[in-house]
Design goal:
Strand order of the largest sheet: 1-2-3-4-7-8-9-10-11-12
Bound molecules: S-adenosyl-L-homocysteine
CATH superfamily: Aldolase class I
Shape: globular
Strand content: 15-25%
Radius of gyration: 20 Å
């Protein structure tokens, strides 16, 4: 910045380092979804995704290098956890995605890449405030989504932030035993307490909570499971269920059920008065869809 006085430039040079993230690889899907692999300063690699559609452009960012939570259906949890990202690194992802999004402009931001946002609470919240700030990215709070595997203390803390951001909770099973099998985090923060926490979050913030439910063939997608889900959510009218046919992860033996089974599951919930949406997956051909980020392209 040669327009700054020289002595100030010298001082800045002494105290600060300015670096961006380096792009190690960029892949584009046939549906327009792009996956970017970034190399961090310490040579760790992370992934972010950009998902354009007719009416919006959504960026999806990682919050940790690797993940501790080892969900059975998720490729991101297979790599070892290495470290939290700093808010600056998260913002680095957003900056790059914003550039990529032009001219459609980045309209939505989801914390659904690798890692557990509420396990890196302070840095993620700093990033959220910058993303939301009118003098920075100016993305409205309602267009920012934090997705969690169900870290109860994090959800409780979030409800006191006074932000209108969207909260998504990865549910994936309506029964304690099955959820513990699929998501080991359930042994620390069990389903019943998690649902009570979500109810309270809804009441305290006056916001809907989205419950993500991925449908996995032979595991959680039969009528019995839909009935369990209905029972679990009776008395929680502000819950919104987002059904997602799982992405196939071969080495984990995960595949989606057939279309008729998916529709049957959905119709049962709709008939019983629940608020249900069925999500279309994007970016599957470049392994940029949910649960597919796995750093296959790591060079070392
Ligand atoms: N740790 C956070 C955010 C990262 S995962 C969380 O658990 O929510 C983002 C979403 O991808 C979660 O809802 C997760 O359950 C989902 N996901 C993981 N593996 C998947 C798969 N194989 N198919 C579809 N969605 C998957």
């Amino acid at each position: 910045m040669s327009d700054l006085p020289k002595d100030l430039r010298e001082k800045l040079k002494e105290k600060f380092i300015i670096t961006g993230l380096k792009v190690a690889k960029r892949l584009e899907s046939s549906d327009g979804t792009k996956k970017i692999l970034f190399r961090l300063q310490d040579a760790n690699l992370i992934e972010a995704v950009i998902i354009p559609s007719k009416e919006r452009v959504t960026g999806c960012v990682s919050t940790q290098v690797g993940c501790k939570f080892a969900c059975r259906f998720c490729a991101s949890g297979q790599g070892r956890f290495k470290r939290n990202l700093t808010f600056a690194e998260i913002i680095g992802e957003v900056l790059y995605l914003k550039k990529e999004a032009l001219p459609g402009k980045l309209t939505h931001l989801v914390f659904m890449g690798t890692g557990e946002p509420l396990d890196n609470y302070a840095e993620v919240m700093k990033a959220v405030r910058i993303i939301n700030s009118p003098s920075a990215f100016n993305i409205g709070a309602r267009r920012i989504t934090i997705s969690t595997s169900g870290i109860i203390p994090g959800i409780q803390k979030l409800s006191g932030e006074g932000l209108q951001i969207e909260l998504s909770v990865s549910l994936h099973a309506a029964d304690e035993k099955l959820r513990s099998e699929l998501m080991p985090v359930n042994k620390i923060y069990p389903l019943k307490e998690l649902i009570n926490t979500c109810k309270k979050y809804s009441l305290d913030t006056n916001r809907q909570v989205t419950l993500e439910y991925i449908l996995i063939k032979g595991v959680n997608s039969e009528l019995q499971h839909a009935q369990d889900l209905r029972k679990l959510l009776s008395g929680f009218p502000l819950a919104k269920i987002n059904l997602i046919p799982s992405n196939a992860i071969k080495e984990l033996n995960i595949e989606p059920p057939g279309r008729p089974e998916v529709l049957l599951f959905k119709e049962y919930l709709v008939k019983n008065g629940l608020n249900v949406t069925l999500r279309r997956e994007r970016g599957g051909d470049i392994e940029a869809a949910c649960g597919q980020l796995r750093l296959k392209y790591a060079e070392k």
